[in-house]
Design a protein that fits this description.
mainly alpha; single chain
Length: 223
């Protein structure tokens, strides 16, 4: 357990030391939701309707842009080989690694999504639900991005490969997350809360299965 906590802490420290921690993804997410009114116009009804979907798309892009550094540096300096040789479950190690990096870089996104919802014209309760749905979706998004990052570790221009692998796999979680916001907009709060629970179920299922895929990808990159 101590080894997993050390991996978690190491990834969090590296995210802050080498990549600015949460500043990059937060700024990227905020920029994405801020420029939408410039593109679609200031019509209030349109912006309200688009708010949950725009938050989901911005979250997807913010998560993907953090994935390349997760395994690329470890593959180049030999750390990935040491991880594979550690006397702990590779799947648990992969989970600790991804969660450590995502905790340091993605934590502000649900709060920014809530503020963005208010900016788009949602009321406080609807905006809070959008932020909660995104919070429930983040573990799935982070682990999928980690899987794509492990597959692309050491590949030149791996960012494009990561996007091609990760984005289609992220769509179900994002559909549920944005669907919760849409249900809240329509006043169907029972359906909204049910959709939030479905989003959480997707994340829990991803947490149960995806670490094994990441571990297999790590072994493949070191083999």
């Amino acid at each position: 357990m101590s080894a997993l906590l050390q991996v978690f802490a190491r990834e969090a420290r590296l995210a802050w030391a080498g990549g600015g921690g949460a500043a990059g993804p937060a700024a990227f997410f905020l920029a994405c939701i801020s420029i939408v009114p410039l593109a679609v116009g200031p019509q209030a009804e349109r912006l309200v309707a688009m708010g949950p979907g725009i938050a989901a798309i911005a979250a997807l892009l913010a998560v993907v842009q953090t994935a390349e550094r997760l395994f690329a540096d470890d593959a180049s300096d030999g750390t990935l080989e040491l991880y594979v040789l550690m006397p702990v479950s590779p799947a648990l190690l992969a989970l600790a690694k991804v969660l450590g990096q995502s905790a340091a870089t993605l934590a502000p996104l649900p709060f920014i999504a809530m503020v963005g919802g208010i900016m788009f014209g949602l009321d406080f309760a609807q905006s809070a639900l959008v932020g909660l749905a995104l919070f429930c979706a983040l573990p799935a998004l982070a682990l999928i991005a980690g899987f794509a990052g492990a597959l692309a570790a050491g590949v030149k221009r791996g960012g494009l490969l990561i996007a091609l692998i990760a984005i289609p796999m992220m769509i179900p979680a994002l559909i549920f997350a944005s669907g919760a916001g849409r249900a809240a907009l329509e006043g169907e709060w029972d359906r909204a809360w049910a959709t939030v629970l479905l989003t959480l179920a997707v994340s829990l299922g991803t947490m149960a299965l995806m670490p094994f895929g990441i571990a297999a990808a790590m072994r493949a990159r070191t083999g």
